[in-house]
Amino acid sequence: MTRVAVVGGGLAGFVSYLTLLHGGLEPEEIAVFDPEPDPAASWRRRAAAIRQSTMRSESDGHCLPTSFPGLAVRDAVRRRSPAPLVQSVCDRYHPTVESFLDQVSDQRERSGWDERVRPSRIERLRAVDGGFALDEHGVFAHVLLATGHPGLALPDELAGNPGIVHAYEPHDYAEEVTVVGAGMAAATEWLNALSAGSRVISVRRREPARRPLNVERQFFTRRGLARFQRSGRSERIAMLRRFNEPSYPPGRDWDEPLARAAAEGRFRIEQSVNGSAQVICATGFTRGWQNDPLLVDLVDAHGLDTELGWIAVADDCTVPALTDETRTLALAGVAAQWAYPAADTLVGAKYAARGFLRRVGRCRTR
Ligand SMILES: Cc1cc2nc3c(=O)[nH]c(=O)nc-3n(C[C@H](O)[C@H](O)[C@H](O)COP(=O)(O)OP(=O)(O)OC[C@H]3O[C@@H](n4cnc5c(N)ncnc54)[C@H](O)[C@@H]3O)c2cc1C
Predict the structure, then answer these.
(1) Among candidates 109, 102, 82, 127, which has minimal Cα distance to 27?
(2) What's the 3-state SS for 59-117?
């Protein structure tokens, strides 16, 4: 009965599972492979480490298969106030982390997710007649790989230093804190450390871009996405590199506390790490399929088309060489960036999940 496998049961895998159910699949047709049953486990740990309290995403940044009604509607009903809806229309609504996670728990329970999760890490995927063999778990006609970021990135020159902690690992704040990096996690850490009473030194290689979402808003639209997907390889690589540069939202909530702290001598920018007892590396994740053992094995075994760190997936996030009218191999999450620049967001997870569902549905009706 089980014909569909989702490898990686994090948020992208969870979005895909809910989308498949919404598209008419029975839970028994789907197996999810992940050693960890909580779909929000990785996310929760990282968001808690940087004390994130509101989402960077907007009303549609949730795990449900349809974009609307989003979290703003839910919030408006709960608070009996139109304020979230008005903010949402002006692109100024950001749900709380708590309301986002509440909805994940709710959907986890209602959707029978836990019964579908097989607590296993997949090491090998091979295309075989009629589908894909996953370790010793059998053959699945349709497989979605949603294995997330392979690991946390630490600058080589700082590795092994006793005062180093990655921003996505639990930590407190010393009297003087150096924060390396200049993206959303770094900006959150500047403010966290300042409100804990620390002096903060920001070490950055370049000035961060200021934009509300990690990818420019135009690339979330049909037109912007079409432009991206029509681009030639070198142009696409240039765009992806730009999106991967550090950025955090514009606005007084960020600027005023930093300006105040700078005036008090509690915040300054430096070019290199200078001996602070605590160094927080807000340096994100290791990037590229070369860092994910399952993807390395897959690319090597099947000679997949790649460009630098990206697997060259089709516009619907499927792997062209291994997808046909009988079987589907698709990527979701950061690994699908070649098709959708904001693949590593909840909206991006929905995009990949819908592409996968279309393929699975087409094969079922044939
Ligand atoms: C602090 C933080 C805040 C963010 N805030 C937002 C936000 O506000 N809005 C937004 O849209 N996005 C946000 N994002 C981005 C994005 O939504 C998250 O990165 C999200 O967790 C991505 O989901 P994922 O499933 O791809 O990866 P993960 O949630 O990391 O899940 C990957 C899963 O795959 C499993 N896995 C890995 N390899 C294997 C294998 N071989 N076999 C089986 N299982 C495997 C892992 O155990 C893990 O459970 C944020 C990210 C971070 C880090």
Answers:
(1) 109
(2) CCCCCCCCCCCCHHHHHHHHHCCCHHHHHHHCCCCCCEHHHHHHHHHHHHHHCCHHHHE
Hey, what amino acid is at 295?
A: L
- What was the pLDDT predicted at 365? 63
Confidence at 319, pLDDT banded by 50, 70, 90: very high
156-208+246-281 to CATH, choices 1.10.240.10, 3.50.50.60, 3.40.190.10, 3.30.10.20? 3.50.50.60
**pLDDT at residue number 311:** 98
Mean pLDDT, range 150-169, rounded to an integer: 91
The rounded Å distance from CA 97 to ligand 1 centre is: 15
| Contacts with 201 (C-beta within 8 Å, 6 or more apart), sequence order | 176, 177, 178, 179, 267, 268, 269, 270, 274, 276
Q: Indicate the pTM of the whole model.
A: 0.96
Ligand 1 pocket test, pick from 214, 337, 344 with the greatest ligand atom count within 8 Å of Cβ, gives 344
